[in-house]
């Protein structure tokens, strides 16, 4: 029979395997018992020592041949427990005789202590939890962690198995609603589709659908930035009210192409239905260097003479129109004789009731006023 002292000195178990001092990186600190106990239980189970903390393998008599082996393996579990708790908790369990005693004391002190209060705190944090800056996966993981801790603190002793199943069915449906309600508004479409189902799917399937929708949105977002389609370009220009910039290859000006350049196609001024922007305020054409008065006339001298004779013939047919015809004939005479003007240009009648000039030679005919008419000025005053 091997001696206990020899087994402890070698640090080996009965199979001769070297076991580590730590089986979990989580240390118990009075507030994390649920996560600590779960992690430590997994570590102990992986070493084949779970029955030492469940009480399924009690201590044999010290005179029994199995005593040294049991004492060695139980001490190994005690080392794992002591090394995984904080320094202020170690004195509370250090002198316990078995690993099972250590495990039971810690469960009573931190596991079931104030269970109702802790369940209330967990539920409040669950209802207040929203996705916020978290990803969908992180948000779901945070909820799952809180639900697992809540399940630990809630009494789950049911006498009727049917009622127990109905309770958990309703509980997980409520948890599905909490998960859907905490998501961002961008998932409203898929959320409505899930809630409109005849049978609400399980929360794992709901999470899978939300993740698929998120990945689809990411793919669509990437595709939309890889290139702009013609439809997107038209939509953009219609919103901004701007057209693509055009530059004339002849005059190098922006806003038109060479096909609509007025320098090459002056006849398109009337076709386009409006004068150039710098001439809208006046109907008097501006002389350009080197241009002649003849070039400004739209009709030749022969055409003006024919038009004048035609209007005079029309005026003789109706006495009521004689005066108007004569006036028009005079205007045509003035037009045809525009080259004799001392200034080289002539002023088109704009339809105003009064005209003013400092050069009487500008008029073909005029008469002096009686001196009693008054002319209204721009500031509202009038002068005679």
Automatic annotation (TrEMBL):
Domain Retrovirus-related Pol polyprotein from transposon TNT 1-94-like beta-barrel: 346-383
Biased composition (Polar residues): 228-243, 289-300
InterPro entries assigned: PolX-like_BBD
Transmembrane region(s): none
Residue segments, region Disordered: 228-248, 269-300
Basic residues composition-biased segments: 271-281
Protein's name according to its UniProt entry: Retrovirus-related Pol polyprotein from transposon TNT 1-94-like beta-barrel domain-containing protein
């Amino acid at each position: 029979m091997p001696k206990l002292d020899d087994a402890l000195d070698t640090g080996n178990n009965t199979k001769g395997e070297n076991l580590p001092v730590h089986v979990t990186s989580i240390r118990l600190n009075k507030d994390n018992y649920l996560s600590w106990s779960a992690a430590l239980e997994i570590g102990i189970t992986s070493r084949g020592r779970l029955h030492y903390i469940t009480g399924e393998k009690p201590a044999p008599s010290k005179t029994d041949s199995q005593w040294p082996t049991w004492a060695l393996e139980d001490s190994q579990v005690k080392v794992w427990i002591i090394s995984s708790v904080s320094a202020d908790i170690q004195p509370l369990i250090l002198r316990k005789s078995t690993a099972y005693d250590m495990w039971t004391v810690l469960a009573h002190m931190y596991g079931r202590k104030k269970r109702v209060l802790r369940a209330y705190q967990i539920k409040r944090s669950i209802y207040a939890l929203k996705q916020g800056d978290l990803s969908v996966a992180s948000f779901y993981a945070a909820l799952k962690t809180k639900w697992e801790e809540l399940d630990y603190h809630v009494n789950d002793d049911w006498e009727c198995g049917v009622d127990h199943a109905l309770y958990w069915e309703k509980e997980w449906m409520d948890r599905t609603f909490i998960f859907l309600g905490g998501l961002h508004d961008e998932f409203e479409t898929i959320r409505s589709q899930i809630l409109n189902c005849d049978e609400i799917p399980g929360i794992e399937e709901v999470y899978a659908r939300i993740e698929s929708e998120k990945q689809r949105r990411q793919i669509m977002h990437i595709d939309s930035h890889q290139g702009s389609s013609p439809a997107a370009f038209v939509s953009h220009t219609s919103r901004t009210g701007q057209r693509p910039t055009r530059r004339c290859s002849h005059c190098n000006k922006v806003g038109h192409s060479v096909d609509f350049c007025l320098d090459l196609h002056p006849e398109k001024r009337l076709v386009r239905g409006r004068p150039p922007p710098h001439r809208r305020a006046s109907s008097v054409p501006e002389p350009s260097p080197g241009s002649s008065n003849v070039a400004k006339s739209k009709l030749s001298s022969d055409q003006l003479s024919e038009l004048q004779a035609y209007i005079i013939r029309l005026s003789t047919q109706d006495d009521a129109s004689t005066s108007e015809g004569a006036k028009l004939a005079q205007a045509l005479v003035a037009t045809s004789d525009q080259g004799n003007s001392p200034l080289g240009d002539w002023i088109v009648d704009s339809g105003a009731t009064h005209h003013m000039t400092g050069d009487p030679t500008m008029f073909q005919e005029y008469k002096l006023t009686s001196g009693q008419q008054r002319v209204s000025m721009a500031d509202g005053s009038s002068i005679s």
